[in-house]
Amino acid sequence: MQCPHFDAGRCHSCTLLATPYPTQVDEKVAHVRALLADERIDWLPAVTGPEQGFRNKAKMVVSGTVEEPVLGILGSSAGPYAGQGIDLTDCGLYPPALQAAFPVLAGLVTRARLQPYDATSPSRGARRRETPRESAWRGELKHVLVTLSADGELMVRFVLRSQEPLARLRKHLPWLLSALPQVAVVSVNVQPAHAAVLEGEQEIVLTDRRTLPMRLDGITLHLRPQSFFQTNTAVASALYAQARAWVDEVAPASLWDLYCGVGGFALHCAAPGRAVTGIEISAEAVASATTTRDELARLPEGADVGGHDAAWWADAVADVRFAAGDATSFARDGGSPELVIVNPPRRGIGADLSGWLERSDATHVLYSSCNAVTLAEDLARMPSLRPTRARLLDMFPQTSHYEVLVLLERS
Ligand SMILES: C[S@@+](CC[C@H](N)C(=O)[O-])C[C@H]1O[C@@H](n2cnc3c(N)ncnc32)[C@H](O)[C@@H]1O
């Protein structure tokens, strides 16, 4: 694949662009197999999706001016583009529906006079001080975050330094909704700190609709602005389908989904007679998961979701619950199910939760990881749980990242 931004040294994200795609996948498989280094694992063929246009979410830094905003990234501090705004609205990782939304969003920046935040140059007076106050930096709009659903709807979030532009944004919202009728949810996130943090804690939803329905092959998840969702919708669908197939083979009567996010694993693995508990640190994500569960509990007669009818689903989700909390603390406090699913951030589950799983009564663990290095470290801490089956899912083509799902069985 060719990319003008990569070739010119403006963007360095897609480190494998020059490698033919089948070779990328072979190298990722070799990487994870070498890390897990267990000849007894039955490896299924890797799952791949589209090689480009697969990202369902854009995290655009806004730079430039009110009249000419630039949506993309800031050039890395070491190179020739240091601190410069780089327009990435034509990035090949974004599907056409996201690319088409960017110029309209840039138009809103101009109409609502959302001054792009200037992260590089504090005002003159402040420059003399060693650590300028936050108010010394100019501008308000830090990022625009856009999520595209499988049905072409959009969730748009404006990350602002303060609520100062809020009234102007509200005033021009009708213009945005008529220019981009596919926008379902618009919100403002307030991130006051001058720090390399994407978003802050406070979220103000401006639209009547508060969730973006993300229809997968089986189930429609309801995403809220602050809840995590997997980057690649097609591969996420395959990930949940694979998890469900392995869980159904084990057929546990009780299951925990730790780090459950909006409930993708928990809800795909629900079944009549199976008690499912999802635990997640983000209360917003828990609210999203609960919305989807409640919707599945009340499907209209004649509905078919993932090959099951309304009565089956009412039974299946009757014993599904989600709660906000820390995964490790929950595990320490709450007995032990037959099967535990874990899908942690890149840092992995760590020594405490690995140790707890090693000593628990769970007969099976399903570990979904986006970082095989921490996965291998965690597995080494659980010698009684033997990896039996595994599958790489290429969630992030053109980069060295990937997702891997491993089924562990107590020996
Ligand atoms: C890789 S995401 C997986 C989400 C979900 N399983 C899915 O399929 O979309 C990791 C999730 O772990 C959550 N998380 C981070 N730290 C946590 C903790 N200490 N306890 C519970 N959840 C945590 C994050 O908020 C995020 O939703």
From TrEMBL:
Keyword Transmembrane helix: no
Binding site for S-adenosyl-L-methionine: 230, 259, 280, 343
Entry keyword DNA repair: no
Active site annotation, chain numbering: 370
Keyword entries, A-Z: 4Fe-4S, Iron, Iron-sulfur, Metal-binding, Methyltransferase, rRNA processing, S-adenosyl-L-methionine, Transferase
Family to which this protein belongs: Belongs to the class I-like SAM-binding methyltransferase superfamily. RNA M5U methyltransferase family.
Protein's recorded name: 23S rRNA (Uracil(747)-C(5))-methyltransferase RlmC
Native source organism of the sequence: Isoptericola peretonis
Taxonomy of the source species: Bacteria, Bacillati, Actinomycetota, Actinomycetes, Micrococcales
GN (gene name): rlmC
